[in-house]
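Consider the tokenized backbone below.
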């Protein structure tokens, strides 16, 4: 808030449009937020090592004794809710724990209830903001805040209490992690698709009318159900499927693999690397400076061995060869 106020005070002295000033403040805020998150993650990675890492791994991944082991996830959910309420940001809490999951300090099964609790804790900010509204706007503000709260609670009740449904988000997370490890650009493409393209498509369908929305939604649901049923039959009873549907090879490669998209993106990246001066400078291998100490040892070996004098280039090559042999002998 202080940075936003400072930026607003600075921009108020400039003769620029309010929309442009708002865009500049938004961009500046996003840069500061991302920088703080990246710095916090790097600090946590450097601090949480050694005995501290072992203690955290043992504490967070342990379960309650046998009669009460089923309460472990719900207690983790409560901890995530409380910590998010204290820091007033679910992004800070989840961003601090995500690298710990990546290095294996926290299990994915333990991170799942912590994230669900964080989603409940982040609704506390909305409730506090709703209570600070004026008396005539307070009922509507509280209704919206409670919609946010009950939406998150309904999602938890849908995907967490039943063990079979609890595995679906975990399998999806592992699948997306595997794909992202193979194709690094997939994370950015996933964010663009889920947070920009998909909401904009749904909004455009809502503007198109009721009948186009029903038709498009029905087609999407039928395609998803067809893919799920075919995959289940392929794994359980492939004999019930025709030969064409026993594999997805009848589809174009761009519809069943990310390899064509990866090739296209890598070509664009290679062109940018060749054209951008900064990338050319970073990718150019640096010339190794000669090691004076190694040259002195090699020259001493050459003098002690009473070898005949040769040209400078041959002498340097012989010196490097003798130095390599000396290093091998010292290693052995």
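A designed sequence for it:
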């Amino acid at each position: 808030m202080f940075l936003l106020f400072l930026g607003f005070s600075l921009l108020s002295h400039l003769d620029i449009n309010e929309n442009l000033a708002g865009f500049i403040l938004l961009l500046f805020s996003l840069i500061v937020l991302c920088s703080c998150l990246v710095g916090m993650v790097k600090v946590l990675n450097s601090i949480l090592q050694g005995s501290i890492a072992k203690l955290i791994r043992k504490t967070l991944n342990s379960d309650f004794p046998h009669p009460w082991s089923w309460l472990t996830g719900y207690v983790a959910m409560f901890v995530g809710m409380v910590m998010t309420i204290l820091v007033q940001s679910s992004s800070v809490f989840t961003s601090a724990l995500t690298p710990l999951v990546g290095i294996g300090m926290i299990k994915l099964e333990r991170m799942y209830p912590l994230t669900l609790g964080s989603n409940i804790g982040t609704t506390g900010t909305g409730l506090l903001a709703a209570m600070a509204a004026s008396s005539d706007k307070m009922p509507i503000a509280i209704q919206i805040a409670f919609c946010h709260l009950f939406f998150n609670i309904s999602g938890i009740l849908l995907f967490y209490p039943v063990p079979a449904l609890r595995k679906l988000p975990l399998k999806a997370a592992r699948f997306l992690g595997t794909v992202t490890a193979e194709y690094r650009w997939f994370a950015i493409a996933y964010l663009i698709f889920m947070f920009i393209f998909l909401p904009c498509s749904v909004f455009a369908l809502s503007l198109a009318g009721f009948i186009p929305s029903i038709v498009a939604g029905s087609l999407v649901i039928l395609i998803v159900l067809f893919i799920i049923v075919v995959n289940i039959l392929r794994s359980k009873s492939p004999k019930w499927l025709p030969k064409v549907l026993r594999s997805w090879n009848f589809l174009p490669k761009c519809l069943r693999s990310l390899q064509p998209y990866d090739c296209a993106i890598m070509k664009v990246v290679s062109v940018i690397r060749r054209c951008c001066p900064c990338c050319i400078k970073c990718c150019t291998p640096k010339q190794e400076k000669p090691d004076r100490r190694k040259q002195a040892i090699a020259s001493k070996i050459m003098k002690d061995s009473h070898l005949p004098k040769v040209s400078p280039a041959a002498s340097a090559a012989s010196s490097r060869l003798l130095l390599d042999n000396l290093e091998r002998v010292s290693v052995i």
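The two ends are 62 Å apart (CA to CA).
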